[in-house]
Amino acid sequence: MSYRSPVNDIRFILDHVVPLAPVAETEMFAEATPDMVEAILTEGGRLCDEVIAPTNRDGDLTPTKLENGVVRSAPGFKEALQALAEGGWVGIAADPEYGGMGLPQAINVGFNDMLSGANLSLQLNPLLTQGQIEALEHHASDELKALYLPKLISGEWSGTMNLTEPQAGSDVGALRTKAEPNGDGTYAITGQKIFITWGDSDVVSNVCHLVLARLPDAAPGTKGISLFMVPKFIPDENGNPGVANSLKVVSLEHKLGIHGSPTCVMSYEGATGWMVGGEHKGMAAMFTMMNNARLNVGAQGIGVAEAAYQKALEYAKDRVQFTPIVEHADVRRMLAEMKAEIFAARAIALACGVAIDMGRATGKESWQARAALLTPIAKAYGTDMGIRVTNTGVQVHGGMGYIEETGAAQFARDVRITAIYEGTNGIQAMDLVGRKMMDDGAAACRLLQEVEDEAQAARSEFPVLAEDVWQAAEAMREHTEWMIGQGMQDRFAGAVPYLDAFARVLGGYYHLRAAMAEGRNSARGHLAAVYIRRLMPIYAASLAEAKEGAEGLYALSVEDLEA
Amino acid sequence: MSYRSPVNDIRFILDHVVPLAPVAETEMFAEATPDMVEAILTEGGRLCDEVIAPTNRDGDLTPTKLENGVVRSAPGFKEALQALAEGGWVGIAADPEYGGMGLPQAINVGFNDMLSGANLSLQLNPLLTQGQIEALEHHASDELKALYLPKLISGEWSGTMNLTEPQAGSDVGALRTKAEPNGDGTYAITGQKIFITWGDSDVVSNVCHLVLARLPDAAPGTKGISLFMVPKFIPDENGNPGVANSLKVVSLEHKLGIHGSPTCVMSYEGATGWMVGGEHKGMAAMFTMMNNARLNVGAQGIGVAEAAYQKALEYAKDRVQFTPIVEHADVRRMLAEMKAEIFAARAIALACGVAIDMGRATGKESWQARAALLTPIAKAYGTDMGIRVTNTGVQVHGGMGYIEETGAAQFARDVRITAIYEGTNGIQAMDLVGRKMMDDGAAACRLLQEVEDEAQAARSEFPVLAEDVWQAAEAMREHTEWMIGQGMQDRFAGAVPYLDAFARVLGGYYHLRAAMAEGRNSARGHLAAVYIRRLMPIYAASLAEAKEGAEGLYALSVEDLEA
Description:
Two copies of one chain form a homodimer. By secondary structure, chain A is α+β, with helices and mostly antiparallel strands. Chain A folds into three domains: 7-153, Butyryl-Coa Dehydrogenase, subunit A, domain 1, CATH 1.10.540; 158-281, Butyryl-CoA Dehydrogenase, subunit A, domain 2 (Beta Barrel), CATH 2.40.110; 427-551, Up-down Bundle (Four Helix Bundle (Hemerythrin (Met), subunit A)), CATH 1.20.120. Helices cover 56% and strands 13% of the residues of chain A. In chain A, the strands form four sheets. In chain A, strands 3, 4, 5, 6, 7, 10 and 11 form a seven-stranded mixed sheet that branches. In chain A, strands 1-2 form a two-stranded antiparallel sheet. In chain A, strand 8 and strand 9 form a beta hairpin. In chain A, helix 9 (282-318) runs parallel beside helix 11, helix 9 (282-318) runs antiparallel to helix 12 and helix 10 crosses helix 17. Chain A is globular and about 70 Å long. Chain A starts with 6 loop residues before the first helix and ends with a helix. At the A-B interface, strand 12, helix 10, helix 11, helix 12 and helix 13 of A face strand 12, helix 10, helix 11, helix 12 and helix 13 of B. Chains A, B: Residues 161-269 form the Acyl-CoA oxidase/dehydrogenase middle domain. Chains A, B: It is an enzyme of class 1 (oxidoreductase).
């Protein structure tokens, strides 16, 4: 059995659940006609299925290696990444002025979903490059853009993001890497960075590092951080890789999963860098990169879950214990719930993509606020769901799931990182209840109002499911209004369950829309019932947990926790 | 930081939550006085902390190997297992007539919990031996008992259980291994078995296999299965290991975790075996072994969760991001919930142990029924909780959790198998709603009545928590009564969530008892509030899922699942 990209589901969602049509009606994305979208997704799906997916096990079994200071990629990765680059897939959403396809982010999210299911380790390479492209488009000088963007968009070069240092993880402001002016407009970058994904490889001719560092006069904390482009090879006068820069890969991490993706400790020793985005404005530029990446990390969770689901279903059809185990009620339950959760998370991620596109194309603040609201939800729910679904995938396989050769365990190992990087899911949830509620919950309540209105409209055809969704949205709205009155500590204590509840309500809503599109006795109608009746109700427990606030947690002292 | 066995929690539970006192009042367990229990657990804890735990990482990093047909154990394992054997720990609960300590199963469960936290791979060795001891005590001839029990109880020899074959997993009745009479009272055993834990090793002088096989005239299915003792070396006239039997280890599995525990493919080629428990009565004997093992697999999940919790707490105290992250609300929430879940599962497992002991010592059917009811709950909740808590342990570590050297990921990899072996958690749940409800829910309702009565009594001191627990028990009772009227397919479809709900209600109950014992402003009172207010409420969502039954699942055809 082999991986089959979920082209149909993505197309169905963009046609009926979170319509792409309004995006295609804007001037910016006029090319994204239904025919174009179909052609792009179909072609992308074929590439994922036929070229990328066959490399996935090799990446796990033959991890990347550091040899004489150069990272050797896993077998087949170089050819697969070249095929991706040649198809123009790195630059799907990039500016056509520099060679990009200029397509909506929603399409890119769908493609990243498919690509992650095919090979998560490999997908990380173009994903980081895409984030860098977006950061440069928004914040780099015209000179840097002209030099770097065409090479990044074509996939000739790849990009990385360098934030973390041993003492500076979630607290980025604690970073110590220095940037000293060389007097010629460039800077000398010195410091150590850790957890640098695809920090080096033998698949591209240059690796472009975006590095956060401090100028000599910088204020402490995040206000004193600037961003620098630090290429592995300094481009010569023709824009080709020239002399080697003063940087190196010190070591590779030995990780639970994504063995095909090199996670590097990087050392910069007076490396030459070019500033991106102005003095002390590094965080703003980095956030551009991270916001893009966060949504697409959500897509990673969904893609890997899809691959795990397909594998579990195939096993359940083949494995006979009395009957094929797909006929056993508990196995049927696991599979149906896996499928229902994947659909919910996929719809949320695509809704976020559509909101980003509408925000860009129309400049309307309401769309931008929706995109901002949905980004942490798409990231955290997509990846938490990915962990749950891949774990269930192992369970469906029984004892075989624990044997590495089966491949079910690889999905669970690989996807585990997605809940941690690009801001842990705890950070996502705090972003949701903090920064994303600075409008006193206006954007959240507008979205919940939409859910209630649509649920209202669905009552005649789906009386039970529509009522459930309406009630859930109403509870979510009441909770949100209550939460706005609480202090930040209490909000943070309930942030993770609040985000979970919000995602489940949205998941129920998008399932209801799918059911409405296909009718009462359709497969999508049945799947909606699985989600709304069996998985959505957890929102109430999550809200109960969120409502408890911080007091009860701190009532237990650290000594109590140790006892 | 190093592992510290949870001696205090186990003692507290046996003193105040699921009292061991009535067990110690029986003639059979009169030796289990509070002083004795304290001495045993303290000494056992010291052994786990000082001798066993230091071998845990080595087992992961240096997996067992098959060399020239012999399994080489991981570094330090032989010495650690010898220390265990010399301390008499293998035979804690075994018959004193053959050298056992004859202590209550509850103590053994507590010890297995501590030992699993120290090193799960290693603990599997005595665990399987303990199960075999119990099966032999109940079903073997006096001759076999005299020959094997002293060696197994002393830990000189180890035991295995051989059920699974490639085509026969959950459907044990599909097994094909043959047993042909040799005419001298012995049998020739021929067949292949898979997933045989500690199927061989270099730490003991003999390995005793209990093998399920079919006599030539056997009926198909489980009714035609007999059980045989098939030693690696046939004991000579002095009871010492003599000539090698016709069996071998074909290969070892490459697994997600428990790398220190060899999982063997075994081949029996006319190996000499001795029948245990009568013709075609193999399943009954094997169930004795499995019931013991199931509860202690629950203890495995709890022990590994404990170790993961301790490691995460230590990291959260040391890791500074702004402040030590243990002060961050979301990290505090994760840690408090980990601790609360571990306590709940531990109390359930010990309650099951006490019920087993009371059933044995008093012969009362009500205790035996309670033990039977609690066994699948203790197994499935203990192991599902173990998966959740070790996963959260990785999350608390952030990026470091994904790096194998940290050790947090090992706990998550190791514990994953516990939800699968000794009957998957789906099988446990079906056992609960099927076989364990053949009394029309009488045993379940008696236990829930106890919960309600105790909650009633706790109302004045803990009005909110007591009310929550009472309501939950009442909902559980109503659901149970409703379920008894449903067909088996509907019960099975809701079995897993039903078991989860039952466990959460019991977890709330035992937390309430702990709170009552220590008072309103105690740490245990605060921890009870964390569980009852934040984690127990999921029972309602689980019951909602359980109530949906099978229809909605089968409304989705296999083709729909593939679409």
